Amino acid sequence: MTSRRALIVSTSRARGALSGARALADAGWSVGIGTPDGDGLAARSRATSRSHIVPRPRGDLDEFVEAVQRAARAGGYDVVFGGGDDWIAALSACADRLGVAVAHPEHGTVVAGLDKLEIGERARRAGLESPRSVVASVDAVAAWSGPVVVKCRSHWSPTLDHPYRVEARRFDELDGGARAQIDLIRHRGLEPLLQESVDGPLGALVGVFDGRRLLGRVQQRAERIWPTPTGMSSRAVTVPVDDELAGRVESMLADLGWWGLVEVQFIHPVGGEPQLVDLNPRFYGSMGLALAAGGNLPDAWGRQALGDALPTLPDGQPGVRFLWAAGDLRRAAVERRNGVVRDLASTFGWAASRRLARVWRPLDPGPAWYLISSRISSAADEA
Q1: How far apart are CA 122 and CA 330, in angstroms?
Q2: Pick from 150, 112, 115: nearest CA to 278
Q3: The whole model's pTM is what?
Q4: Per-residue pLDDT tens over the stretch 132-152
Q5: Distance of CA 56 to the CA centre of its chain
Q6: CATH number for the domain whose boundaries are 202-358
Q7: Of 40, 103, 164, 342, which cross-links 305 as Cys (Cβ 3.0–4.6 Å)?
Q8: Count of CB atoms within 10 A of residue 191's CB?
Q9: Which 3 state secondary structure label does DSSP give 187?
Q10: What is the pLDDT of residues 265-298, one digit of tens each?
C-alpha cells in the first residue's frame, strides 16, 4: 500500500511539529515540513523527507496559500496540519483553496476554539471550572485587584501582520508591567485578556475527539514548567484518567463541534476543582509523553482527516515520565530549588527514569544540532 503523505506547516523551532513528524513517520507516513525559512527542528529530523518554504500566515494570506499549494504539489501530500494557532486558523480559512485535505474543523469552529474567552464560557456550560477572564478594557483594568495573567484572547486575527507570538505573563498586581503587556498585545493587533491567576500544578487531558468521545485519553501532570510560571512542561508524568473530568471535556468539545487532536490544559488548585485554562488543538511540546504512554495520536488524527476508520486507541498508562532537558536545565539555573547544583542534578535524576519520553533522540540528532548552532549564531550576532 502506498504510504500516506502529510505536510506540517509551522515555525522553525516548534517542538510540537517535531513530535508530530516523528509520530507520523513512526506510523509509516511520508512527512514534509513547511517553515518560513525551509529549515528548523523538524526539517533537520530524520522523520521528515522534504522541507518547503511556507511563510507565516499574515495579511491577505495569498502568499501563504500559494506556498502551501506549491508544497502540496511538490510533495504529493494527502493532508496538511497546522503547527500553531495562527497556522491552524489560516489553513481552515483557506481550506477550499489549498488543493489538499486540512486536518482541522471548519473555520468558524476553529475561531471559536482558539478564542480563550469563548472556551472559558463553553467550559462552564459543560460543568467545568475556568478562571474568571475579561477583556482588558479601560474599565476592567481600572477595576482589577490582585494577581493577574495577561494573555491574548486569540493568537489569530485576519489582520495580524506581526511575525511573533505574545505569550501569557503573570503579574502580582496590575501595575506598570502588566499595563505594558496589555499595550504590547494591542500593538501586535490582538485583543488582551485579564485572567484570574490560579495557583497549582499544570495538568492536561489529551486525546483524539471523534465528535462524541475522546479516544486514546492520556492525562498528565507537570512537575516542572519553563518559563516559570506560565510556560510549558519541562518535566511531566502521566496519571490515571479522571473519567468525570473527561466526560465534561467531551461535552465541551461536542458543543464546540470539534474533531481531531486536542490537549486541554488545567490548573489543579489544592483542594479545588481543576480550572480549564487553554485548549491546544494541535501538536504540542510534551506530546511525546502521550505517545509513550498510549497510542499514536497523530496517526489516528491524520486517518480521521482523510475519512479513514480510526484505529483502536487505548488510554495512556500512568507513571510514564517526560523530560524537555534543555528547558528544565534553564529552569533549574533560574529557580535553584535547594540550590542550583541540587536542582541541576535533579534534572539528570529525572532523566534516569526507565519509562521516559524525551525531546532528544540519540538516533535523531539533527534537531539538537540545529538548536545548538542557532544559539551559537545568535550569541555571535549579539557579541
Answers
A1: 36
A2: 115
A3: 0.93
A4: 999 999 999 999 999 999 999
A5: 16
A6: 3.30.470.20
A7: 103
A8: 16
A9: helix
A10: 999 998 899 999 999 999 998 999 999 999 999 9
